[in-house]
Design goal:
It is built from 14 helices and 16 strands. By secondary structure, the protein is of the alpha/beta class. It has two domains: 26-144 and 279-360 and 385-396, Rossmann fold, CATH 3.40.50.2300; 150-250, Response regulator (Rossmann fold, 3-Layer(aba) Sandwich), CATH 3.40.50. Helix 3 packs parallel to helix 4 (107-119). Keywords: Signal.
């Protein structure tokens, strides 16, 4: 609690009367933490996430806060360093005693901090889209999963482009597990994955991969590439004269504003599937985008699914606090499980109590001149992949990530 120095300077004594104490206690803030990469290579994902987190918290506070108190966020920048993630998660749970932690961009960072927050019994929200399968009662996951996105994109790709699929993926758990889902949904659609290559996040030279693709002649390329370094693939692909020669589909392209950074010659025609695009034409989304730019200006980062799902995550947590009328961790968990729907920028986001994932609308869109053109939309898609293996109502002590085999 910060008390003004003016109360103690100038030789004036002030009695700490009961009404004064009551006013200070009412002003005591609810402390939460965010751990998002705002530098270090993954800031292309972290900056719009951070902006939407700020917007959600400012709107909460403008409406009176929670439990009659203002919400304050302590921000940690792990600088795309897993060791800093673990350090900051420990600090948020112990020294800060945060009521909830919102954090993690890559699945590697999530799996580094999720056990820490579970051990210290600190409520955790993970908002980026990911590979699915996390089953943990202490964690709520508001981004889309493969059943919602890959499950829609692969039938679209096979139908429109052909059956032979070549996969390029980031070499960590997101890319590796998602590639298995691509194979599964490709085969369900009557196609086949003819090759899959995995690249560490620091790789920038894709010349060998491009040569292999040219030899294999797939009908479609599926990219699960992540991070600023991996934008080199699209630049080198265009430089090799391959732009628009073989269709490219993705459930990661655009998540880091790649379509804004790359030129139209390098990115036009790429097709992505997400639970949110800034271009969605609904009154609710247009009002959200207007509020977003009113707060951060016309040069604010493009709002990605990761960012919109973070806005939803803050509001799901707020729903739980209001319903529980408490900050107690288990009371908030049980309150969210009893029913939480957020009318988010992309439409309703509804928590599934069995999995702690969200049903969400899903869209397929094509890049055109630094924007996405919506091609198809699917309402209220459930997290069916995780629901097939996770039931936290029946097994509340389950705490693992299931992987498709």
């Amino acid at each position: 609690m910060n008390i003004s120095r003016r109360l103690f300077l100038g030789g004036t004594a002030m009695a700490l009367t009961a009404p004064w104490v009551k006013r200070v206690q009412a002003a005591d803030k609810i402390s939460i933490a965010s751990i998002y990469d705002l530098s270090g290579g993954l800031e292309i994902y972290g900056q719009p996430i951070d902006a939407c987190l700020d917007l959600a918290i400012s709107e909460l506070n403008a409406a009176g806060g929670l439990l009659g108190r203002e919400v304050a966020v302590q921000k940690y920048d792990p600088q795309s360093n897993i060791q800093l993630y673990t350090q900051f998660a420990t600090e948020a749970a112990t020294s800060q005693q945060a009521s909830a932690v919102f954090g993690g961009i890559t699945s590697a960072s999530r799996e580094a901090i999720r056990p820490i927050l579970s051990r210290y019994q600190t409520l955790y929200f993970y908002s980026p889209l990911y590979e699915g399968g996390v089953c943990d009662r202490n964690t709520f996951l508001t981004g889309s999963t493969p059943a919602q996105t890959i499950g829609k994109l692969m039938p679209f790709a096979v139908k429109n482009f052909g059956k032979k699929v070549y996969v390029l993926a980031a070499d960590y758990n997101y890319g590796q597990i998602s590639a298995k889902w691509v194979k599964d949904y490709t085969e369900q659609s009557g196609g086949s994955v003819i090759a899959a290559e995995f690249f560490p996040l620091d790789v920038t030279d894709f010349s060998a991969a491009i040569q292999k693709i040219q030899r294999e002649k797939p009908d479609v390329i599926y990219t699960l590439l992540v991070g600023g370094n991996h934008m080199s693939f699209f630049r080198q692909w265009a430089a090799a004269g391959m732009a628009n020669r073989i269709p490219i589909v993705s459930t990661s392209f655009g998540g880091g504003n790649e379509h804004i950074v790359l030129t139209p010659a390098e990115s036009d025609g790429v097709i992505s599937a997400f639970g949110y695009f800034q271009e969605i034409k609904t009154p609710q989304n247009e009002a959200f985008v207007k509020r977003y730019h009113a707060k951060f200006g016309d040069s604010a980062p493009y709002v990605t699914e990761h960012a919109s799902a973070t806005y939803n995550a803050i509001n799901h947590w707020a729903n739980g606090v209001r319903k529980a009328n408490s900050l107690d961790r288990m009371a908030v968990i049980e309150a969210i499980e009893s029913g939480s729907t957020v009318e988010g920028p992309g439409g309703p986001s509804t928590v599934d109590p069995k999995t702690h994932h969200c049903a969400t609308d899903v869209h397929i869109a094509k890049v055109k001149n630094h924007s996405f053109e919506i091609l198809e939309s699917y309402k209220n898609q459930p997290p069916a992949d995780t629901a097939a293996v996770c039931d936290l109502i029946a097994n509340p002590n389950d705490n693992q990530q299931y992987v498709i085999e």
